[in-house]
Amino acid sequence: MSYYSSSYYENCCWISVRIHGSADWYATTVVDLATRADTGRPNSSPISASSPVVRFVQQCDSSIRIPVEDPDGDTVKCRWGVGLEECGEVCGAMPNVTLDEDSCTLSYAAGLQDGWYAIALVLEDFSPDPACSSGCGPYTKIPLQFLALVETTSTPCNQRPMIVGDEPRDQSCVGVPTGDTYTAVIQAQAEGAGVTIADILTTSPLGMTKSSLAVDPNNEQRASVTVTWTPTAQQAGQHIFCFRAADTNNIESTQRCLTILAGATPPAVATLTPSGPVLSSQQITWSVTFDMEPILATTPRYIRFFNDAGTEVHAIDTSSSDLQLSGNTLSFTTAPNVFAAGGHYILVDQGVVISPSSGCATGGPAFAGIRDSSTWTFNARPCPEGYDYQFGIQKCLHLHRRPMTYLDARAYCQSRGGGIFRLDDAADVSRVKAALAGRRVGMWVGLTDEVTEGTFVWEAGTALASGDFTDWAGDGFNHNGRFRHCVQMKRKFQWRWVVRSCRRARSLFFCQP
Fold it and tell me: Which pTM does this prediction carry?
């Protein structure tokens, strides 16, 4: 059973507007006060935020989204007011403007006569359940009325000012825990020679403060303001915050709006791994562990990697198969050799994950992101500690400069978590030969026939195939026999390969991780 209550206000008059003249205005709110079957409590009305005046450039197509939220999570729709009680004497659609009722977006088609126009909308909330068949709303009817000014200007349509940067992100949901302060820097850029930013206009919650306009000392066409808000306990709930830029030609940017949930807690970082030194020559798995089990964003967000110079070197889309969310942990991978040697940092977009609790039309409060370049840093190294590129060989190697028997060399490399490097590449062998010039000791190749006489096997267990590179000194110098099983590059034979004792002969060697 519904129990509707209504309240209205009427007076005279609108300023003189086209079509309606200096008309009376009338606004009625209708609310169903009955307990809802789906929520177990009376309905909460939708909320919105709008500037009292919106501007359209006469010769330019444009659109304005009316931001709406509903505390019950209902679907909110907008329509033109109809009848005296909803809109007084300014009812009906504005000429050249169409209204998308589902998204509450006004779209203006160029060509309307200059002047003031009245816009009277009604917001209605409906059950979000697609299976609802009765008692589905509208539960309330909320008037939203404002003025539109159509102006002619000589400014080209593509020279509107713009809000720069991804954040604060349009249609985002930001949680501000009780006692915390919301802070955001809003940057705008003017377009066209000699044009600058005149102001950054805001429609904000009660108590939000905005700094004076700060002009970028390196770019006079760019300016910013900082907004801060510490909500009181009585302000817990949804608040819509909108902003747009105006330039010195009185042209305005597209508006951005977000919902701030006062008293709500967004996901926060518990741990970040890895940090410090990382081996860039291997695939790396990165992870962010949160203080709650979040939900992955459904709209594109990015994790971005930068070098110390501030250049973006890699980015991962949250829709990528390289990224997974399991429990509290978001993990993602990067392929080998993505990062050059040196310092790097990682930034994470706002809203990569959101809280599992509801609160906004787009979901729960969003993770604030990682925006400080000092929060998650790492130092990329192509090789593990103690390993490096040697003699121009583009592989991570550790050269042991004291000769050892093959068996001791094997044990030494294994103790470092690796094995004897296999010299199976003609270019690598040539580089080693050049480096050995003038030395008296040989180099272990990483090849033996310890298991089966005459069947040579590389250290990793792969048999020497007929097509593999070899550099034998010749059958007359092979010296293969009962006690000779390990292949060595030997000076006496111009550093070509011979078979020596694994237990007695001593040579230099490379370890490879």
Answer: 0.73
